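As a warm-up, study this chain.
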Amino acid sequence: MTVLAGSVRPAVARDVMSAPAVSVEASASIWTAWSLMMQTGLRHLVVAVGDGCVGVVDDRAIFAEWPMGPLAMRRSRVRELLTPCTTCVLPSTDLRTVARTMAAGNFDAVPVVDDGGRLVGIVTAGDVVRAVAASGIELEES
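Now compare it with the structure written out below.
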C-alpha cells in the first residue's frame, strides 16, 4: 500500500466566498433588492458604488419593511437599511480570522475585496458553516 501525504493549508476567504458577489446600488429601491434576492435565492446583497463596497443588506432587514407594503418598498431606498461596511476581508484572509471578525462584529456576512478595495466576493455565516461541515475544525490544546 502506498500512502501519499498531501499538504494541508488553512482555508482562506477565497476558498469559501461566493463570487462574484451579487450587488445592488444604494440608490436602488428596497423592492428592487427584494426582487433580486428572490431571483437569486440569496439572503445577503452587497451594497456597492461602482466597484467599491459601502454595505450589506440582508433579507431580514428587507422583510421587516414588508408590512409597509409594495408602494412604500418602491419608494424607500436600500441606503436606509444597509449595514455599513466597516470591515471587509481580503481573499487571502484565513477563515479563522474571517469567522472571528464576523463574530466580533455580530455580522452575518463580510464582503471580500482585493488589494485595491474592489469587491470580489462575500463570505456568509452559511459559507463558514459549510466549510466546517466539509473539513471539520481542529482545536488547539492549552
